[in-house]
Design brief:
about 290 residues; about 15% strand; about 60% helix; single chain; six-stranded antiparallel beta sheet; 9 helices
């Protein structure tokens, strides 16, 4: 049922966007993942993957947001529609290996982040074989994970190649993630100091309000000026670190890293398409740099 609702949401959102915009997005998408044709065996699934990407992930240059984010700004959404859209926004698009297939669920490993997820699915034995490697999307909804309708499968002998490429991706990501941790650590001390300064200011201002002695007033005013100066410096220091963190997360972690992962997954999709069309070729001659 949830997959039907997701598909209906995709249709609703895409209907509200110009067809020429979708057509251009499809051309950009297929520059990386390969042009698909109606006689391709995986045509429907690959078109579904494109529409998911366009609706949930593609950032529109004009609005700097995805169609899904634009949809969520609609104040007239029903609670159910908003709940589903927000769940999709929190979803995981990546590469997975099916590790357990049960009657009511599939346990998968997200090999991009080495995390295990239990996905509610009663058609697991039809969709997957044990240790299948595939591109997919998980949606967290009401305490459970669900698949969307579209998958891109990769042959098992490619696992070594794919894991080696992921290792390189993760190595490039580690530097930025380490910098993020350093910045998070560096902001703690000035935040604590600011809290202490703010408390001192409140106490000194309280004393100032309760005295009438000129000498005491002058002394307290000088102390307040010194504390205010320290407060301004700390606030500036904290603001600078917060700006660095925001820039790092927006431009690198949520920007460059996400784009690199997307490009990698799309290139694998193109390799899968070539393998699908040329079964007589050794898969290792297709899945390579």
């Amino acid at each position: 049922m949830i997959r039907e609702n997701i598909n209906q949401l995709i249709e609703e959102i895409t209907r509200s966007h110009p067809q020429d915009e979708i057509f251009q997005a499809k051309k950009d998408y297929q520059k990386i993942s390969g042009e698909i044709f109606e006689d391709d065996k995986s045509f429907e699934s690959r078109m579904g993957c494109f529409l998911e990407w366009y609706t949930f992930d593609r950032i529109c240059p004009e609005s700097r947001s995805t169609p899904l984010q634009q949809y969520l700004r609609n104040q007239s959404l029903t609670p159910e529609s908003r709940e589903l859209a927000e769940a999709i926004f929190q979803g995981i698009h990546g590469l997975f290996i099916a590790k357990k297939i049960k009657n009511d669920c599939v346990v998968v490993i997200d090999i991009m982040d080495n995390e295990k997820h239990r996905v509610l699915e009663n058609m697991g034995s039809i969709l997957f074989n044990l240790d299948d490697l595939f591109e997919g999307r998980l949606v967290p909804y009401r305490g459970q994970y669900y698949f969307t309708d579209n998958f891109c499968y990769h042959p098992k002998p490619t696992v070594g190649f794919i894991l080696s490429k992921i290792k390189n991706l993760k190595a490039n990501e580690r530097e930025a993630l380490a910098k993020e941790k350093r910045l998070q650590k560096s902001i703690v001390s000035p935040q604590k100091s600011l809290k202490k300064i703010t408390t001192k200011l409140e106490k000194v201002n309280g004393k100032l309000a309760g005295t009438t002695k000129e000498k005491k007033i002058q002394s307290l005013k000088e102390k307040i000026a010194g504390l205010e100066n320290q407060k301004v410096q700390l606030e500036s220091q904290i603001s600078d670190i917060e700006n660095q963190l925001a820039q790092l997360r927006t431009e690198i972690i949520e920007g460059e890293h996400k784009q690199n992962r997307f490009t990698f997954i799309r290139k694998l999709s193109y390799m899968s398409l070539k393998w699908e069309r040329s079964r007589q070729i050794d898969v290792r001659d297709i899945y390579q740099d």
